[in-house]
Each structure stands twice: as structure tokens, then as C-alpha cells.
Amino acid sequence: MDRTSLLLLLVLALPAWASDTFPAVIQNKYSLASQPPESCALCHTNFVTGLGTVNTPFGKAARLHGLVATNTAALNAALDAMATELTDSDGDGVTDVAELMAGTSPNQGSGTGGGAGGGGGGGTVLPPPRYGCGASVVPELLFFASLLPLLRSRRRRP
Predict the structure, then answer these.
(1) CB 99 within 8 A of CB 106
(2) pLDDT at res. 37
(3) For the residues of 129-155, what is the DSSP string, one character each?
(4) What is the structure's pLDDT at 95?
(5) N or C: which end of the chain has fewer CB within 10 A?
(6) Is 120 left (phi over 0), alpha (psi -120 to 50) or beta?
(7) Which among 51, 49, 40 is positioned nearest to 107, based on CA atoms?
(8) CA atoms within 13 A on the CB side of 38
(9) Rounded to 5 degrees, what are φ and ψ at 54?
(10) Residue 5 to residue 127: CA distance in whole angstroms
(11) What is the dihedral of CA 36, 18, 77, 56, to 10 degrees?
(12) pLDDT: is 149 or 4 the higher one?
């Protein structure tokens, strides 16, 4: 395999950094009979996982509390912080942890508080993450694209 093909393979593999073990970690942490009700959709929307797709109310709240892609210790710490702060991502009056334990969605109002959502960050605007699932692939693509002329020029030399 030549360098250009290898480089292209690396670029195409970047979106595969999603954290598909997180639903199982949540299941184990709270001794749930099954994985959370939305599984990957707990943090991702439209069944799209990968770079820049953690955008549900619960996912945003977890990021605010230290969630880092592929880091199960960071997930556990974020869940603990959310439990301590009684985070209610969907604003329905039921905390996210209580909803997870009850098998309901922390993204969709299901409690008695009547909220319509938005409790995940209190209006806090999240900066784009520089890691894993939520990281932008554009800087990496630009970097790899800038290397292509260098790789081509090296091959042309006798």
C-alpha cells in the first residue's frame, strides 16, 4: 500500500471514533436490565454517530460535565457529577439519572415538571470539542490534504 492510499485510509477512518460502549457502561453503572432507552441516540441524533454528532440535551449536559469520547472513566465521572447536581436535561422535573434508572428518556419530557427541554446547559453554549465523537474533522482533513503534495513530490525524485 503506497503512502497516499494509507493517508486516505486514515482520513476516512476518522469518523469511526464513536463511543459505542457508552450505552453498556450506563447499563452496568446503574444495574439496568437493558441498555438505556435510546442507546446511541441518548447522545446522538438521527442515528448518526461519529465526529460532531453529540448534540442531544443529555449529550450536551454530559459534555458540560466532562464527557470525553471513548473514555469510560470520564463518562462515569460526568454521570456522577450530573447526579450530584440533579441535572435535568429535558427540563421535565425528573433528573437524568432518575430517568435512566426508570428506563425513560432524559431527552424527552416524561416527568411531572411539564418542561419542554433545554435544561441540559442552562443556556450555556458549548465550544466544539477537540476530541473523539464531537471533534471536527475539518482541521485533520486540511492537514492530511496539505501532506499530499509532499508525498507526491517525494515519489517523483529519482
Answers:
(1) yes
(2) 77
(3) PSSGGGS-SHHHHHHHHHHHHHHHHHH
(4) 95
(5) C
(6) alpha
(7) 40
(8) 22
(9) -85, 95
(10) 33
(11) -60
(12) 149
For 74-89, how does the pLDDT look when each residue is reduced to its tens digit (9 = 90+)? 999 999 999 999 999 9
Does residue 143 or residue 48 have the better pLDDT? 48
Q: Can you tell me the distance from the alpha carbon of 76 to that of 71, in angstroms, rounded to the nearest whole number?
A: 9
pLDDT, tens digit, 9 for 90 and up, residues 84-127: 999 999 999 999 999 999 988 999 875 444 444 444 444 444 45
**Nearest C-alpha neighbor of 141 from the set 3, 48, 13, 44:** 13
Domain positions in the chain are: 1-17+136-158, 19-134
> H-helix or E-strand containing 96?
helix 96-102
Q: Which amino acid is at 121?
A: G
DSSP letter at 54 equals: B
